[in-house]
């Protein structure tokens, strides 16, 4: 009788540990899926910037409830911007940050050419 009780106690401990490992794996999988979705959203925003979206600072929400932000600044802030009527193209440093609902953040940095603002 004691042997059966000890066996059940050991079985309960093993099953509890296995459940913990399984639950942790599911949490990590969900987090990775959120980061992958945020990466795709950041790449999409970066591709649309200057085409569908204006080349300026912006912020909003993703379809899944996360947040995104775009920061646009002159590539070389120490260099004075040209003052001409023809508005030449200059390089801008573009940072796209997407935060999925589950936490974490994806940050993509690129350079885009745009007119002097």
Features:
single chain, 117 residues, alpha+beta, four-stranded antiparallel β-sheet
Walkthrough of the structure:
This protein has 117 residues and is of the alpha+beta class. 40% of the residues lie in helices and 28% in strands. It is built from one helix and four strands. The chain has one helix at 2-48; strands at residues 58-61, 67-74, 89-99, 106-115. The longest helix has 47 residues, at 2-48. The mean pLDDT is 86.
Q: Would you spell out the secondary-structure blueprint of this structure?
A:
Layout: H1 2-48, E1 58-61, E2 67-74, E3 89-99, E4 106-115
Antiparallel strand pairs: 1-2, 2-3, 3-4
Could you tell me how far the N terminus lies from the C terminus, measured between alpha carbons in angstroms? 84 Å
Derived structural class = alpha+beta
Strand percentage, roughly? 25-35%
Number of strands: 4
* Quaternary class: single chain
Order of helices and strands: HEEEE
Using the alpha-carbon principal axes, give the shape: rod-shaped
Number of alpha- plus pi-helical segments? 1
- Sequence stretches where pLDDT stays below 50 over 5 or more residues: none
Q: What is the radius of gyration?
A: 25 Å
Q: What strand order characterises the main sheet? A: 1-2-3-4
Task: Round the mean pLDDT to the nearest integer and report it.
Answer: 86
Summarize the main sheet: 4 strands, antiparallel
Helix percent reads 40-55%
